[in-house]
Amino acid sequence: MAIEGLKSYYQINGGLFHAVSEVECERIINAALTIMETTGLEVQHERAVALLDKAGCRKEGKTVIFPRNLVIRCINSAAPELVLYDRFGNVALRAGGSNTYYGLGPTNPFFNDFETGRRREAVRRDVTYSARVADACPNIDFVMGLAQISDCPVPISDVVEMYEMLTNTVKPVIGWGVGVEGLREQVEMCSAIAGSRKDLIDKPFAALFPGCPVTPLIIPHLIYEKLEYCVQSGLPVIWMSGAQLGSVAPVTMAGALASGLAEMLAGVVLSQLIREGCSIACGMVVLTVDMSTTHSAYGSPEHCLGESIVADLFHYLNLPSMQTGGVTDSKLVDEQAAIETSMQIIMNSLSGGHLVHDVGFLDGAMSGALEQIVMSDEIIGFARRITKGMKINRDTLALDVIHEVGPGGEFLTHEHTFEHFREEFWFPTLIDRQLYSSWSKTSLDMRSRIHNKTAGILAEHRAPALPEEVMEQLNYILEQAQTRIQ
After folding, report:
1. How much is the pLDDT for 121?
2. In the chain, what are the domains?
3. Which of 261, 267, 317 is nearest to 51 (CA)?
4. Which InterPro entries is this protein grouped with (predicted)?
5. In Å, how far from its chain's centre is CA 203?
């Protein structure tokens, strides 16, 4: 049941694991298209409504009806991958195909203090330390702030966050905006580092997140304004929704995904009407509403399944996706956190979801923790070794070596082992493999090892400093941001 006008990239882009079949993807996509052309979405900004009207949509009361052919045209015109560079102009990630990258998430109102372990309001230094830790972790590919800063005025908290990220990591960053003004100031900061706005657009090391539609099926006035600016800026854009099963989305996974996909495709349509061919990564966070507490559960099997289905859908559509992983409902970096984080990361890695954010989240996206970043880094490394698979060729089959060693021999001292073990084996930095006699000299458990490694990063790691003239420009932009709210 192929969808007219859409080519399936399900097989081309697919990961090692599929949660749904190609036909099931088509049923969900068709359902989303049906929602858009029958139920429609409430679009609250007049400029957006006028843009859609010009493209052939029609307004029925408060809702806008999206013609199927327009949606398909915009899917086909959107960039098939999202490319981000590091601060030095090297390609850091290509979100497309079945490539999977991991990074932090934004806006936790609380933070588990590294020194005391106590939960408190998130402050500016939490962004500083999160970026520094992420910069040091080899399996963290991009950086978000992890904390909703409380010790500066809210209207410029997004600009302060970007400042701290840019000065504490060389990895790609994703910024969000309280309003258009803050997003504009963030782009000015990034342009100062790149050398010019054109240089930034040519090799972007930042993407912008304007916020989410209101589920179900509403695109608010401010969210559209921010989306419009983000697309016009020339930088890649992130567009996500949250499907909470049984509350603001149907309790059934299929219904929630169809509704959420309609919201995502509305963002794709708007982005392509603003700037055809722009890069936009979409995602749906599928959360269980725990019926005993009414809290949303990130650490659920439904969330893991939802992440894999979303990956299949966007592989089919040949669009980059934003995923979720490295987050737990636990209040501490403990055994529960390890279980939930591991399941999410292995499912994302096997499914080939593209940009997996929210690494470092505790308490169902209410609190951040540096130790959660460090533990997740280890888990991601483990998962990446699994998805790396193996090479099969004459050298790796080692028939000559097997024949040479013969029955009853050993391979430990053979040159073949020396030549290949570094590539074949994954080497952990936290998982303990010592003999008991060696381990018992310190008897450090996993929590202690995570804490010690994190402490070492904070004490020793610093990203390369920005040039003095660039720092002067960043400081000036931040000062101007502070002036506009006085």
Report:
1. 98
2. 1-389+428-486 (3.20.20.480), 394-424 (no CATH)
3. 267
4. MttB-like_sf, MTTB_MeTrfase
5. 19
